[in-house]
Amino acid sequence: MSLLFVGFVFYMIHILFPPSSEEEQYSYYQLIHTYNELDFLDLNSPEDRILLREALEIYDPANTTRHDSVLAEIEIYHKNRMLSAAGSRQLTSAIDMDKLLTILNMWLKFAAIYIVVLLVTYYCVETFAVYRFIREKYRLSFYDDILNNLKQLFDVQRFKAKFPYLLNILVRVSRTVLKAIIILVLFAPAYVIAYSFKTRFDTDSFIVMIILGVISNGLLITYMQKYYTFLVSEGRKGYVQTAIVKNLDSRMIFDKKKGIQLSSIFRINKKFPGHIFDQIYENVRFQYLNTLKEQASFLITGLIIIEMALNIQGHLCYELMQNILYKNLSVILLILFGIFVIVKLTQIVIDFVVIRQHIKIGNISSEEVE
Amino acid sequence: MSENKKNQKCHFLRFYEQKDKYWLSIWILGLMMIWIWNLIYLNKPALKQLESGFLNTLIISFLVIIFSILLGWSITLLQYLFERNYPKIQIILIFLINIIRSIPQIVGILMGYVILTVLIQQGVLRSDFIILIFMALIIALFVFLEIFDLLRERIHYFRRLDFFDAMRVCGIRERYIINREIIWRSSRIHMVNKMIAIFGISIFLLCSVDFIISVGLSTDVSSVNLPVTLGSLLAKIDSKQDILAIGYSLTHLGYIIRLPFEHLQGISVSFIIVFTLVCMYQIGNGFARRHHL
């Protein structure tokens, strides 16, 4: 419904503000043409433009502002011509078949990157949140760990016996510093990371785009925290306590025999048979689906920032920016509609999965859905 | 003496455990340290630009919070009113809100900036402060939904409880229950939590959009027309070269020591952005944990 509505609105804007012809784009078009036809004047050259400006001043001293406007327009006209000849932009803003296919190709590329990044981030968010949830159950906090080790360090008299505690402190501090650096990188906007590494590799490649999409803009850490919060609140629910009382395995420790197997966390299809965490995880996975819409929307913002800020030529959002620059309204609307379609399709797919889950667990029947 | 020491330790431990206050102090201290360092080593004109860029970014982000609260609160009330009295209009309102939701924030803000530039070029907007307000309003239009969703959910939750009907039976006006009891008294902490998140997201969006227009639309939406922010400062060629130096120093480790002296402008700008984002995230998490949200 909203797709139709937005499509209709964009179409109406396109009809109401049709692409302007070259003549309409320049208010002094005829004048520019007349000056261009003068053999002794090369308007590409700045010196000749100054000469023309001085000649106009002598001829008509009362209209200084108008002369400035004509000169400014001549400059823009020649710049546009040059860009057109270099093939970097088409002067006409009308959408022909060629342009449509080019934009479609860019859209498909954008959609492909988006899908890959969405899947990778979803996997990473889930995996890291589960890992953190289990680790936090038995690991001491930084403050307590350092305090314990310092206490032991001062209690022991012999230097040799102090060594393991010193090493523990060193390891814990280095791990925290490393964690801080990783957090800084994960929160850095994509353009900061990309410019930092621009001398090291080609930022235009497909793989780099995906890596930037995953690790930058704080996406991973923000949604990992949300997933983790879901796990914590689910872990506090009554059924978990009941299951623990009924002697279901509840040991939150990485162990093959008496806890959770570490390798099962990294699987795409995570399963923890016979453990209470299996139920917590299943419930949270279902709850997170609504947040996934939010994540997808933020991801699109991130990808647009990457393509625009890094000026990645041949990509959809770079094309959008170029067309904003040259005020090609019809192309802008087409690209915006393409992005809107991606967002809406994601929401539809997620809603579909949510409904299927509801049917699976019996919250609603398939007749109700119909 | 030992009791005193124990008390001191407890104070520190309590402060450390209140992560929001702890990270707020880290943020303020960190910014002060950067400022002092820049005061010593950065040249005066660059420092002045950095200060005004940071200040403008801060002012816009605070304004975004205010506008988001106003927009979110008023549209929640409007939606509630329509839901009770004009259900058909409510459907249209929700439909329009969902459309705003489906527009990627950065695209919406970019389009808003194009309109802003047209207004500046036509001389409609002249004062720097009015431009700042307009910039904040554009960003708020695409982030206020966080507040709207929160308030809507809170009203929905409280309406299911007995106290809502009980208060109505006592003759208390619905307007009073919603505005004072539900939103102000029972959701203030939730709103503060959202405000922290909005502050972070608005800094991120503002810096990104300013960076984009300074890099890609410089001939049309010139950074000269708009007040300087951290994003536009980062897009300057000097800053970009400073950031590029980070990559260079990864393979020439000896160069790292020169970064905080010779590439101070770019490093400072990018660090302030990233550091602020990290601190806001930690403050938000700490606040949520302290208030059990």
What do you see in this structure?
The complex is a heterodimer of chains A (370) and B (293). By secondary structure, chain A is mainly alpha-helical. Chain A folds into two domains: 20-85, no CATH class; 97-369. Chain A is 75% helix and 0% strand. Chain A has helices spanning 2-16, 22-25, 29-36, 46-59, 64-85, 97-138, 142-155, 159-187, 190-197, 206-215, 219-235, 238-245, 262-266, 276-309, 316-325, 329-361, 366-369. In chain A, helix 14 (276-309) runs parallel beside helix 15. Chain B is mainly alpha-helical and 293 residues long. Chain B has a domain at 71-188. Chain B is built from 14 helices and no strands. Chain B is flat, with a radius of gyration of 23 Å. Chain B starts with a helix and ends with a helix. Mean pLDDT of chain B is 87; it is low at 219-224. Chains A and B meet through helix 1, helix 8, helix 9, helix 11 and helix 14 of A and helix 4, helix 5, helix 10, helix 12 and helix 14 of B.
What are the defining features of this structure?
heterodimer, A: mainly alpha, 2 domains, 17 helices, B: 293 residues, mainly alpha
Measured on Cα atoms, how large is the radius of gyration of chain B? 23 Å
Largest sheet of chain B: none
| Count of discrete domains of chain A | 2
Helix content of chain A: over 70%
Kindly report how far apart the N and C termini of chain B lie.
39 Å
Chain pair with largest interface: A-B, 44 and 43 residues
Low-confidence segments of chain B, given as residue ranges, are: 219-224
Our count of helices of chain B gives: 14
Percentage of residues in DSSP E strands of chain A? under 5%
**Rg value of chain A:** 31 Å
Strand content of chain B: under 5%
Our measurement of the CA-to-CA distance between the termini of chain A, rounded to an integer number of angstroms, reads 17 Å
Give the class of chain B from helix and strand content and strand pairing.
mainly alpha
Number of strands of chain A: 0
Query: H/E order of the elements of chain B?
Result: HHHHHHHHHHHHHH
The overall average pLDDT of chain B, rounded, is: 87
| Gross geometry of chain A | elongated
What count of helical segments of chain A does DSSP give? 17
Unreliable residue runs of chain A: 86-91
Average residue pLDDT of chain A? 80
